Amino acid sequence: MIISQLPVLQVILPLAAAPLCAILHHRILAWALTLLVSLISLCFSYMLLNQVLIEDTITYAMGGWVAPWGIEYYIDKLTAYMLLIVNGITVLVLLGAREIVESDIASDRIYLFYTAFLLNLTGLLGVITTGDAFNLFVFIEIASLSSYAMISLGRDKRSLYAAFKYLIFGTVGASFILISVGLLYVVTGTLNIADLSQQLTNTENTPTITTAFVFFIIGIGIKAAIFPLHLWLPDAYTYSPSIVSTFLAGTTTKVFIYVLIRFIYSLYGYEFSFFTESFHYLLMLSASGAILYGSYLAIKQDSLKRILAYSSIAQIGYMVLGIALITELGLMASLVHILNHAFIKVGLFLAVTAIIYSYNTDSIEKLAGIAKTSPFIFALFIISGLSLIGAPLTSGFISKWYLIKASLEADYWIFVSIIVISSVMAIIYIGRIIETAYFKPSAKQTATLDLDKKRPYLLFLSLVVISFINIYFGIETSLNVDMASQIANELINK
Amino acid sequence: MDILSSFNYWAVIILMMIGFYIIIANNNLVKKIIGINIFQTSIFIMFISMGKVVDGTAPILNDLNTLYSSPLPHVLILTAIVVGISTTALGLAIIIRIHTAFGTIEDDKIQQEIK
Description:
- The complex is a heterodimer of chains A (494) and B (115).
- Chain A has 494 residues and is mainly alpha-helical.
- Chain A contains 21 helices and 2 strands.
- Chain A has a domain of 192 residues.
- The mean pLDDT of chain A is 88.
- Chain B is built from 5 helices and no strands.
- The termini of chain B are far apart.
- The model of chain B has no long low-confidence stretch (mean pLDDT 87).
- Chains A and B meet through α6 and α7 of A and α3 and α4 of B.
């Protein structure tokens, strides 16, 4: 009985818990409820994955209205894979969130923070599960609006301006997606994604379809921070409360990359996207730009969170690069990197969160020699850092390995050198943090451990789990790589 | 004439560009929100125009009329209006807090203070 309702439960559960969280009006209860909901949600997405492996696709007609007329929730392997990533990240972030949120956010607003968090989760899970183009727009806006609110909760007043900037960018992006949905509706008379893709293969290519495609790409490019549409991202990640940056870095951009994949492969069909419009050259250019520019700027920053933010821009470039190669292997590398990078970045951001929490500073200069006082956090930071660089036996190595293999297979030698150069740059910016913390003698301006604060043991626990995941996926890849190659195969040969 | 027959769409394009220009060029944060509103309104008009069938009436089932306009875009736009209002409300709320924190809502002055 519950199995047939699983697709909709993914969305309904956090949506129903959000107002409950506001009613509870208690900071610890709100945290416990949010964690509980995300745990149940994780179990449900695991059950969905098992179901999908047997049945291939699950469709759920909302309110009993059948597909092209009603709103349909559509679950295939890609959906289940993304649901598992987002729910997994959410659980790990929330586990350590309590102490951090209490120190980052004014205590009378904490329950509202968790309400916004749950709404954001609703939006993200909705974007993944829905099979209806207009419904997708609504969920995108639910996710975005709640993330503007969460960003503006930061103690630093610059977070307000960052949130406003993100709001302007994000709304323009979402409006572009809305225009694209409208134009597609004019041509086909349907909003169901599966139905749209069928109608599009039967209709001739008109300027309206191309315009819709362009509007969609620009809109989703802003939302996913694809270079050069990434300008909102560094400020939003730097000034927002640490937990929010961690959560956004691990989920939001990945979900929008998923939407990009969904539209390119399931809706327009990749023949349209790549052969009619030669769109992949544009994506390649954007990806190379993102990788080099993001890594370069990451080297020049002084704030820990800003370094990670620029590195995120570069890593989004990797995911786009995999898509742009238009081979099965490339798409697979992209999917593997979505999973691996989600865990790597959340690991790094959580370690940085722990540092900011314990030392009250975000500046790299004040960290000289502090690894002696917090050896544990820095050891875990190094594991995720090595994984970001792509050292062997870590998950980052696996993604880069498949990306390089895919570039070679598609005969693009240039991308191999770009990936190698950016890995070297990653060694510089991650190495700089490690060098300062371990080898520089502590000076007068070095931050000291804030002993008044409770130690965030649960945060350490989730850091350990993430480091374990990072190493596990570097050694034993059968889980994610097999899954990703199945998905890529289905998407391309559909 | 061609322009007159697709008058709505020209209005959409002009409104959209006005809104977009305000978002990019105006220095005042409240006016940026106004720009976003104009921009979104143009999209609403586009959707509503799409649903109109020439000589079609409201989709009420009776014996007199057989030609109906499509009601679906109207429903979609009702939802989109709600989304637009939420965005405006949130934007204005953030502007109020920016004003208390920075003492100004001019973009260039805020950027100066951030540096």
